[in-house]
Amino acid sequence: MEHWKFDRLEAIGGHAAEAEGHPELIATPAGRAVLFNGVDDALLIDCHPLAGAAAFTIEAVFRPDGGAFEQRWLHLAEADPVNGEAQSPRILFEVRAKDGVWYLDAFATGPGYNLTLADTAKTFPVGRWYAVQQVCDGKHYRSYVDGVLQAEGGIDYKPQGPGRASVGMRINRVTHFRGAVLEARFTPRALAPAEFAPLPAGL
Question: Mind listing the domains of the chain with CATH numbers?
Answer without folding.
Answer: 2-195 (2.60.120.200)
